[in-house]
């Protein structure tokens, strides 16, 4: 295998993790990763050497997911507990918090969820997210701020208020 293909294959675990949280459905996540890898493999000659392959693959995954979402929205299922791999044993309260966080994430739209998942789960920089989602850097930062507040409100049981005002 070439260095490029090795780098492509090395991205699979992160693609799987992101796809699981993005779709909320294990079978749909595996299909999404497979579609991403297939498209990435065929487009590998067009990848710019020296650029961030992970961000490139996440862009491909994002585009596939958006295309699939437009066709038929998949029902969201809660992930199995065995998918959460923790470095230390979880206490009961931490488990409940994780379930609450997962439920709160499921209440957000895909646009609201994407930025949070890419920052928190994939540890991508704002610049990488901007390139991956093809949105301006300022949009990344404002979405992240608003969506963190939405999750806090959902988890605290507060009503989610819109910061947008109607102007007549």
Q: Can you walk me through this structure?
A:
The chain has 168 residues and is mainly alpha-helical. Helix content is 65%, strand content 0%. It has helices spanning 3-10, 12-23, 26-42, 53-71, 92-106, 110-120, 126-133, 137-156.
Q: What letter string, H or E per element, gives the SSE order?
A: HHHHHHHH
Calculate Rg over CA atoms. Answer: 17 Å
**Approximate helicity band:** 55-70%
Count every helix, treating DSSP H or I runs of 4 or more residues as helices: 8
Average residue-wise pLDDT: 79
Contiguous low-pLDDT stretches (5 residues minimum) are none
Please write out the topology.
Blueprint: H1 3-10, H2 12-23, H3 26-42, H4 53-71, H5 92-106, H6 110-120, H7 126-133, H8 137-156
């Amino acid at each position: 295998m070439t260095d490029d293909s090795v780098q492509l294959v090395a991205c699979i675990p992160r693609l799987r993790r992101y796809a699981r949280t993005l779709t909320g459905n294990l079978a749909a996540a595996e299909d999404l990763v497979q579609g991403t890898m297939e498209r990435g493999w065929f487009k590998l000659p067009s990848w710019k050497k020296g650029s961030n392959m992970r961000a490139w693959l996440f862009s491909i995954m994002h585009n596939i997911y958006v295309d699939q979402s437009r066709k038929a929205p998949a029902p969201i299922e809660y992930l199995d507990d065995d998918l959460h791999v923790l470095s230390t044993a979880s206490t009961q309260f931490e488990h409940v918090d994780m379930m609450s966080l997962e439920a709160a994430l499921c209440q957000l739209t895909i646009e609201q969820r994407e930025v949070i998942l890419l920052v928190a789960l994939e540890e991508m920089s704002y610049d990488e997210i901007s390139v991956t989602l093809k949105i301006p850097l300022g949009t990344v930062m404002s979405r992240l701020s608003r969506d963190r507040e939405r999750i806090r409100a959902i988890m605290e049981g507060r009503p989610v208020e819109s910061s947008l005002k109607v102007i007549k």
